[in-house]
Amino acid sequence: MSAQQSQGIQTLLEAEKAAAKIVQEARQYRVQKLKDARSEATKEIEEYKKAKEAEFKKFEASHAGTTSEAQAAIDKDTEVKLQSISDSYNSHKNEVVQKLLDRVTQVKPELHKNLKKVQS
């Protein structure tokens, strides 16, 4: 009976070793699959990034002329407005200076309204 128990134990130990080997292989397979998946995802990301960069460069090139045209139009409009402001300044500066001088030189000395109330 001891031989049968010994043989049964030996069979169980062999089965346990085989199971451990299968588990180890499964772990290695899983690790390899994860590595493969990561490298594949990295490749896809790089391809997607390259495609989007190319698309952006194409868009940028097609709209580059529009930007320079818009900038030229804005510069022209700015020059027109600056000229208008300058013309307005030149045409009204004498009037403004004269009004300021009139106000400064025409002083009517009188008491402040608050001072009048206190004295009453």
From TrEMBL:
Query: What terms describe the molecular function in GO for this protein?
Result: ATP hydrolysis activity; proton-transporting ATPase activity, rotational mechanism
Which superkingdom? Eukaryota
Instruction: Tell me which UniProt keywords the record has, alphabetically.
Output: Coiled coil, Hydrogen ion transport, Ion transport, Transport
Task: Provide GO CC annotations from the record.
Answer: vacuolar proton-transporting V-type ATPase, V1 domain
Q: Where does this protein have coiled-coil stretches? A: 12-58
Bilayer-crossing regions: none
**One family name in Pfam for this protein:** V-ATPase_G
The answer to keyword Coiled coil applying to this record is yes
Q: Which PANTHER family match?
A: V-TYPE PROTON ATPASE SUBUNIT G, VACUOLAR ATP SYNTHASE SUBUNIT G
State the similarity comment: Belongs to the V-ATPase G subunit family.
Q: What does this protein do?
A: Subunit of the V1 complex of vacuolar(H+)-ATPase (V-ATPase), a multisubunit enzyme composed of a peripheral complex (V1) that hydrolyzes ATP and a membrane integral complex (V0) that translocates protons. V-ATPase is responsible for acidifying and maintaining the pH of intracellular compartments and in some cell types, is targeted to the plasma membrane, where it is responsible for acidifying the extracellular environment.
Summary of subunit composition and partner proteins: V-ATPase is a heteromultimeric enzyme made up of two complexes: the ATP-hydrolytic V1 complex and the proton translocation V0 complex.
The protein's name is V-type proton ATPase subunit G
- Which source organism? Lentinula edodes (Shiitake mushroom)
